[in-house]
Amino acid sequence: MSPYQQRDRGVVSARKSPGGSRGREPSPSPRVDENEIRKPWGFSLVGLRGGLVTARSRRLKEALSEGMRQAVDLIYPPACGACGCDIIPGRDPVEAVLCPDCAGALEPLGGLVCERCAAPSGSCHGDRLAGETECSTLDADVTSCLDCARLSPKFSRVHSAWQYGGPLLEAIHAFKYEGRVHLGRPLGKLMVSGFRNAPAADLITPVPSHPRRVRRRGFDHAVCLAAEAGRGLGIPVLPSLLRRARDTAPQARLSVGARLENPRGAFEVRGRAARRLAGRRVLLVDDVMTTGATASACAGELLEAGAVVVEVLTLARAA
Length: 319
Fold this sequence. Notes:
The protein is α/β, with parallel strands linked by helices. The chain has a single domain, classed as 3-Layer(aba) Sandwich (Rossmann fold). Helices cover 34% and strands 10% of the residues. It is built from twelve helices and seven strands. Strands 1, 2, 3, 6 and 7 form a five-stranded parallel beta sheet that branches. A two-stranded antiparallel ribbon has the order 4-5. Helix 12 (293-304) links the parallel strand 6 and strand 7. The longest helix is centred in the first third of the chain and has 21 residues, at 55-75. The radius of gyration is 28 Å and the shape is globular.
């Protein structure tokens, strides 16, 4: 049988090794650590499987995702978060959420507002609780409202650029209650775009939802907003610092007095997370602030666990 026939039939003849022995099994190839196998774009196979990628690969992934999103938007235009009509997203954060007509009805939070809780002049949550008839109006010489003077919230300051109402209310409800998860990112960008004075925060954490609500919705709306805030502000996000110890009634369904009592004792800092708070400045993120009771309850737990200051960032502020 010729050597060519042997090759075609799979017959391998023993070859003489340099040492003179015949038929010796070839030495096994050295074990290659998968951590050392790196592609030209800079991440390991193990890192890819485990979800651990380098900053370089994350930027590549985000660029590809953004390009794919834009391509899909051209074929299937997104809908306005308020009225549902087709929109063509632009670079302005408002254009990514609302159509031109609804965007024109968006109300910025302007005028005189409380420097602590961002309540606009004329808010009267605390006054109604006390049974008074006049609202706590502000003037140029007054920097805080009666609510903050009476209730002493645990947070230091609230940052919110938009009034809760009109098309923004509709968009937030569509995001939270109608399963339109895709609105989370543009709403988060809208929230960050109105951030006039960014605090020197060390970390961002969201107001947690109860696991039962997360299962029902399929996602945690505050986590989505916090992720976008971290991306836009360049601040690390720790989504699991707080947990909701008990499921509370939705604040929107309660009276002012019940809203102030409802969140007390409802939150706690996770045991392992507490060590990350010592000496840290925390930015707490939520979608809407009304009385500020929920944010104050969360801030109180964070401060007790070692945080030095807690500020709040919300998408909208209710009057």
